[in-house]
Design brief:
The chain has 14 helices and 24 strands. With 427 residues, the protein is of the alpha/beta class. A four-stranded mixed sheet has the order 22-23-1-24. The protein has a four-stranded mixed sheet with strand order 2-15-17-16, with helices on one face. The longest helix is centred in the middle third of the chain and has 13 residues. The mean pLDDT is 95. The protein binds uridine-diphosphate-N-acetylglucosamine. The site of uridine-diphosphate-N-acetylglucosamine has 20 residues, from helix 5 and helix 6.
C-alpha cells in the first residue's frame, strides 16, 4: 500500500489551488438520475470517491464521460446521462465502501418511483444512522420497508405526493436526499430545520439550473414545488472549503504564508474565525484567501456544529494545529460520538491530548517528533499530515487511500509550496 513520507520543518509559502468540493460533487452526481438529459459537471475533483460514484451511476444505467482535461490540470468535466434507468438498486458492496451512495435513494425514488438501497452500517467516525432520510421521504408519501439489510422505498402511483417534514436534528445527508426526492413530486414539499451547508446551496442551485422550483435556498426552511420533469444543465462544482481550511491549518502550524486560490471566504467564516483566534493573519485576496502566521498558535476553544458553526470536518486538522500551540485548547465534538480516532496517533508524535467523552483538551507542546502513523478516516489522516509537516524528522502516513478519497493530489500541492513530502508507491 502507498505511503506518504514527510520530512517536517519546512515553512509553507506560495499559492495552493483549491479543488472542487468532494461533499458537493457527491450530491451533485446523483442529480443526473433525475433527468433523461445530460448533466455536465465542471470542476469535479479527481478523487477516488468521485470515480466510485461514477461507477455506481453506470450500474444504474447512467452513462458517464470525462472530457479531455490534461493530466496536469486540477479538476475534470464529467457528463452523466441517464436516458433510461436500467436498475434502481444500490448494492451492499458499493454502499459499504462509499457511504455517499445512499444519496441515490432520493433521486431514484423521484425518477423511477422506487429504489432499493443497502443500509450503510456504521463507519469509523460513528454510528451514522439514516432514519431521518427515511422519515423525510415518508413524510412526502414514500412507503419504506427494511429487509435483509436493504431499504426498499416506493412512491404509490409512481410519484411522491408532497408533504412537510421538520428535522429533529440538522442532517446534511438527509436534507440532500429529501431535496432530490422532492423536486419531481406531484405537490409541494416543505423541509424545516434543513441543513444550510454551502454544499446544500450548491445542490439546490444545480437543481434550479435543471428546472427545479426551490424556495428558501440557504435558509433552514426549503419549499420545493414539484415539477413534471427536469432538464439537463451544465454546472460548476463549488470550491472545497474543507480542503482550503486544511491547508490553512498546515500554513499556521509551519508558520507559513499561503494563498488558497479559489477559496471563498463567505463559505468558511467559522474556519476563518478559528484561524484568527489562533493568531493567524487571514485576508481575502482577489484570487482567494491568504493565511499567514508567525510564531506558535494561540490556544483555541472550538465546538463543532452544523453550518454556519464550526465544521466537524475541520476538527481533526485544527486539533493537529493546536498541538504546537502556546497553551491549552479545548475541542468539543457535538456531531459524531467517535471522532477522536486521530488522537492516539497524534500522541505517538508527542502530542499531549486528553479526551473525556465528547471533549478533548490539547496542551501545546514545544515540538513534535515524526513517526509512522495511520488513520481510520479522511480528516483524521489529514490531521496526521498537518502534524507531520511541523514535526522533527520523518513521518510516514499509512493508509493513504483515505486521503485519496478527499484530497486531490495532496502531495503535489504541498510540494509546490515548499513541503518535503512524497508518495512512496507500494509498486
Ligand atoms: C456529516 C456532517 C457534515 C460532514 C459529514 C462527513 C454536520 C451537520 N454534518 O454529514 O458536515 O461533511 O458528516 O464528515 O455537521 N443523524 C441521525 N439520523 C439520520 C442522519 C443523521 O440521527 O438519519 C445524526 C447523525 O448521527 C449526526 C447528525 O445527525 O449526529 C448529523 O449527521 P448528518 O449531517 O446526516 O451526517 P452527514 O450527512 O454524514
Amino acid at each position: 500500500m502507498d505511503q506518504i513520507v514527510i520530512r517536517g520543518g519546512q515553512r509553507l509559502k506560495g499559492r495552493i489551488p483549491i479543488s472542487g468540493a468532494k461533499n458537493a460533487a457527491l450530491t451533485l452526481l446523483p442529480c443526473a438520475l433525475l433527468t433523461d438529459e445530460p448533466l455536465t459537471l465542471r470542476n469535479l475533483p479527481r478523487l477516488a470517491d468521485v470515480d466510485g460514484f461514477g461507477h455506481l451511476l453506470n450500474q444504474l444505467g447512467c452513462s458517464t464521460t470525462i472530457e479531455g482535461s490534461r493530466p496536469e490540470d486540477f479538476g475534470r468535466v464529467m457528463t452523466a446521462r441517464a436516458t433510461t434507468l436500467t436498475s434502481t438498486v444500490a448494492p451492499y458492496d458499493i454502499v459499504r465502501k462509499m457511504r455517499a451512495s445512499i444519496l441515490v435513494l432520493g433521486p431514484l425514488l423521484a425518477r423511477a418511483g422506487e429504489a432499493t438501497v443497502s443500509l450503510p452500517g456504521g463507519c469509523a467516525i460513528g454510528n451514522r444512522p439514516i432514519d431521518l432520510h427515511l422519515k423525510a421521504l415518508e413524510a412526502f408519501g414514500a412507503e419504506i420497508e427494511l429487509a435483509s439489510g436493504y431499504v426498499k422505498a416506493s412512491a404509490p402511483g409512481g410519484r411522491l405526493a408532497g408533504g412537510k417534514f421538520t428535522f429533529p436534528v440538522v442532517s446534511v445527508g438527509a436534507t440532500e436526499n429529501a431535496v432530490m426526492a422532492a423536486v419531481l413530486a406531484k405537490g409541494t414539499c416543505i423541509l424545516e430545520n434543513a441543513a444550510r451547508e454551502p454544499e446544500i446551496v450548491d445542490l439546490c442551485n444545480c437543481l434550479v439550473a435543471m428546472g427545479a422550483e426551490i424556495d428558501g435556498i440557504g435558509t433552514e426552511t426549503l419549499t420545493i414545488e414539484g415539477v413534471d420533469r427536469l432538464h439537463g444543465a451544465t454546472y460548476r462544482v463549488m470550491a472545497d472549503r474543507i480542503e482550503a481550511g486544511s491547508y490553512a491549518c498546515a500554513a499556521v502550524i509551519t508558520e507559513g504564508d499561503v494563498e488558497l486560490v479559489g477559496a471563498k471566504a463567505d463559505e468558511m467564516e467559522a474556519t476563518l474565525a478559528a484561524l484568527r483566534e489562533a493568531g493567524a493573519t487571514v485576508e481575502e485576496t482577489k484570487a482567494g484567501i491568504r493565511v499567514a502566521m508567525s510564531g506558535r498558535a494561540q490556544p483555541v476553544t472550538l465546538s463543532t456544529a452544523p453550518y454556519p458553526g464550526f465544521a466537524t470536518d475541520m476538527q481533526a486538522q485544527f486539533m493537529a494545529m493546536a498541538t504546537l500551540g502556546t497553551g491549552a485548547s479545548l475541542f468539543t465534538e457535538t456531531i459524531f460520538e467517535n471522532r477522536y480516532m486521530h488522537v492516539p496517533e497524534l500522541a505517538r508524535m508527542g502530542c499531549d491530548i486528553d479526551v473525556r467523552g465528547r471533549s478533548a483538551v490539547v496542551r501545546g507542546v514545544e515540538k513534535l517528533i515524526g513517526a509512522p502513523v495511520m488513520a481510520t478516516d479522511l480528516r483524521a489522516s489529514m490531521s496526521l499530515i498537518i502534524a507531520g509537516l511541523a514535526a522533527e524528522g520523518q513521518t510516514e502516513v499509512n493508509r493513504v487511500y483515505h486521503l485519496d478519497r478527499g484530497y486531490e493530489r495532496l502531495e503535489e500541492k504541498l510540494q509546490a509550496v515548499g513541503a518535503d513530502i512524497e508518495r512512496i508507491s507500494a509498486g
